[in-house]
Amino acid sequence: TALGEYVTAEKYLIESIQVGRSLGFVPSSHLFNLANLYTRYGKHDQVLQIMQEAVRVDEQMHGKESLAVTVPLRKLAQTIGLVGDTEEQLKIMQRCYSIYRKHGVQHGKEYAFVLQNLGIAWMDKGLKEGGFDFKTGMAFEKGDSLKNLKKAKALMEQAVTILKQSIDERHPDVGTAKINLGNCIGYLGENERKIGLQMEAMKSHIAVTGTENHSSVAELYANIGRTYSTMQRYEEAEKAMQKAYDINCACVGPLHNGSQWMMRRLNEIRAARQEQGFSQYSNPQSDNPFAEGVEQIKAMGIQK
Asked: Which residues pair with 286 in a beta bridge?
């Protein structure tokens, strides 16, 4: 898998699971590895079946109220969210949260992951209820949509705090938590803070990998570019999106779907920036370059 030989990896993983079944026991870690591989392919229906089996295995081994069961449950909830069943996603994550509360555990990396995934479930529910404005990035207020997004924000903030206490702040897991929190608060209009969190996550990733030339860094630059665009700060948006495109092309080539998406967004930003430039020097009511000044004089009552 690390070498990118996914077809060969799949064969080994399937064989290991078949051997386990023939012996009457399949370690949930084997199921996890195959599920992660299928997630790369977007085979969510197969991932669902695999993770449901992983949950059953850990329930039989550790008990339904065991903290160990929350690990496959989180992966199951994540996959269910990807197929759009936000209610079931939220139900599973509330079960995970309830298990931790029953054990009196409110610290550590795994608990932070539960809070983060529960926050994502509330965010997905809020977005499904209300949607958001593509131009501004702001969520619409419909029913409890904003209330649910605020719940998500509180949980994700708590997750970031606990992760920073549990592991090195430069760890990629802290960066991921910051990205998730940034995406959530962006829907609530907190774009400056969102950009700050994404920049922190990017610095952490570069510190760990030792290079900026990575597709995940490109995705962060693209996200920052989109955020600047929703704020109508097109010059900064163009710089960030151009950086994203250049890095992604260096990593996976210009024909990759991600690179093509970034180029489309880059062209949109350039068009918006050009339109913004024209609007600053034109008056839709008159071709007279002094028209705005004349209108101000009229408004002041100086001209009769």
From this structure: 283
* H-helix or E-strand spanning residue 131: none
pTM above 0.90, yes or no: no
Q: How far apart are CA 163 and CA 204, in angstroms?
A: 14
Name 283's bridge partners: 286
Nearest C-alpha neighbor of 263 from the set 242, 292, 235, 236: 242
Q: How far is the C-alpha of 78 from the C-alpha of 92, rounded, in Å?
A: 10
Query: Cα–Cα distance between 237 and 273 in angstroms, integer?
Result: 9
Q: Which two tokens stand for residue 152?
A: 């998500």
Q: Tokens representing 287?
A: 């071709």
What are 114-141's pLDDT values in tens digits?
A: 999 999 999 999 999 999 998 899 999 9
For the beta carbon of residue 142, count every other beta carbon within 10 angstroms: 11
Say how many C-beta atoms besides its own lie within 10 A of residue 136's C-beta. Answer: 14
Do 175 and 204 meet the contact criterion of CB atoms below 8 Å apart? yes
Rg (CA), the chain: 24
Give the tens place of pLDDT for each residue, 188-209: 999 999 999 999 999 988 888 8
What is the total residue count of the chain? 304
Which of 189, 193, 86, 83 is CA-nearest to residue 132?
189
Per-residue model confidence (pLDDT) at position 188: 97
